[in-house]
Amino acid sequence: GTATRWWRDAVIYQVYVRSFADGNGDGVGDLLGARGRLPYLADLGVDAVWLTPFFTSPMADFGYDVADYRDVDPIFGSLADARALIDDAHRHGLRVIVDVVPNHTSDRHAWFAEALAACPGDAARERYIFRPGRGAAGELPPNDWESIFGGPAWTRLPDGEWYLHLFAPQQPDLNWENPEVHAEFESILRFWLDLGVDGFRVDVAHGMVKAEGLPDVGHPDQVKMIGADVVPFFDQDGVHEIHRSWRRLLDSYPGERIGVAEAWAPSPQRLANYVRPDEMHQAFNFHFLKTPWDADAFRAVVQESLATADLVGAPSTWVLSNHDVKRHLTRYGGGELGLRRSRAAALLTLSLPGSAYVYQGEELGLPEVLDLPEEFLHDPQRHRNPEDGRDGCRVPLPWAADEPHFGFSLLPGTGSPWLPMPASWGPLSVDSQLRDPLSTLNLYREALRIRRERRRFDDAPLTWLDSPEGTLAFRRGDGFACTVNLTGEPVALPAPGRILLASAGTTVEDGLARLAPDSAVWWGTDGA
Ligand code: TEU
């Protein structure tokens, strides 16, 4: 294929399949539904879709526990549906990235069933991480590692051996020291590449290799340690060997297939390792998930992110939300305030150098749903702390104000959405917003149209402009500038050009722009 390097500035839309669109009316989103909504995504103007796991799974972690990597879970459809979705997406000019989950399988994977049926020491157990316990009778876990979802990272079998699971007990960690595991995943990647996918989002890409001897962390607060230092189960140097072999595999296919690392590293330098030229093409940049609404904080993150990417010549990525965190509209204060800030943040991130991720529903200005009834809450991360539950960002999308369940189901079916949708979401639905020129959906559509028209700002580097306190201003080449007012007051500054797009009312008089509170403006500066 031609070397377009399409991924360096691609806008990639995250489809959380279960909650995007329901094709068969059972109340659970599926591949048929996603396929039916491809025209929406093409019209929105994104370059690619990332589909979260739709493989055979008992759904202990809603698909991040895979029982068969080469098949589709019946709740999401069939392999034929996956093929049709990939082909249709390509016809719409959209690339398709699928999730691959190599750190762990489901406990219902055939390999784990074999491991359970085997005796301690058997080869079938060598595909996972089994160890004898500590203590006089082996009654204590082999080490002090804690699961990300809370509690010990080890579960004991009746025969006395323990197995490692960095996440839920239903997600046993694979043993990447075993060549059989390498070979199996290479074959899984080939399976999907042969079906035509354009790349993989690699789940827990920093976790596959554990430190030799599985040493204790030896720190009372492991969660803090994970952010601050290298722990024996994350970001081990050995993972890069795997990533390099996957890159060689991707490069052996035509058409620039890509890998995106979901990697958490304790420093920007260590994160940059994941996007060295012979490793993954991108790594998620999670900084904005934790950046407070403050101009200096945002500027610092942009600078550090761009510098990190430059270290190894990779594009930066920009992420405001995903299926694991509270939606940013709510993080930014919720309500009208949260919406104003979200609209400004969209124009900011869509004008920065690099690739931008859009999590389904952020283009509609969806808030986190904070009052889901208890009986619907099944996210395993709630074991760690009920506050950490990830259900509220996974509520199905509203498509049509006047249809049952806001049109989540494309066919009139009997099923209610698997998570209830707030009654107030009618005006947030796609059809309502398409009719309103000032809607958040139309802001995204217009921003993406301009981004494409300007050929993504021609790869131009970012240059900061002087601007008043509480604001950001930068240029991308000669033709484009962006200003962001992160204060709750109007701010005046010299207009850098003519307004292309604004997230809120902005006026220009005698060369002076009056920026609305919590707003962003795109400026054309080429005098046209
Ligand atoms: O997430 C990995 C991960 O580290 C998350 O646990 C994250 O830190 C946390 O959810 C933030 O709130 C990936 C997937 O994105 C997630 O959905 C899965 O649960 C997890 O892997 C296990 O596969």
UniProtKB/TrEMBL annotation:
<feature type="domain" description="Glycosyl hydrolase family 13 catalytic">
    <location>
        <begin position="14"/>
        <end position="394"/>
    </location>
</feature>
<dbReference type="InterPro" id="IPR045857">
    <property type="entry name" value="O16G_dom_2"/>
</dbReference>
<dbReference type="InterPro" id="IPR006047">
    <property type="entry name" value="GH13_cat_dom"/>
</dbReference>
<dbReference type="Pfam" id="PF11941">
    <property type="entry name" value="DUF3459"/>
</dbReference>
<dbReference type="InterPro" id="IPR022567">
    <property type="entry name" value="DUF3459"/>
</dbReference>
<dbReference type="Pfam" id="PF00128">
    <property type="entry name" value="Alpha-amylase"/>
</dbReference>
<dbReference type="GO" id="GO:0016787">
    <property type="term" value="F:hydrolase activity"/>
</dbReference>
<dbReference type="InterPro" id="IPR017853">
    <property type="entry name" value="GH"/>
</dbReference>
<protein>
    <submittedName>
        <fullName>Glycoside hydrolase family 13 protein</fullName>
    </submittedName>
</protein>
<comment type="similarity">
    <text>Belongs to the glycosyl hydrolase 13 family.</text>
</comment>
<keyword id="KW-0378">Hydrolase</keyword>
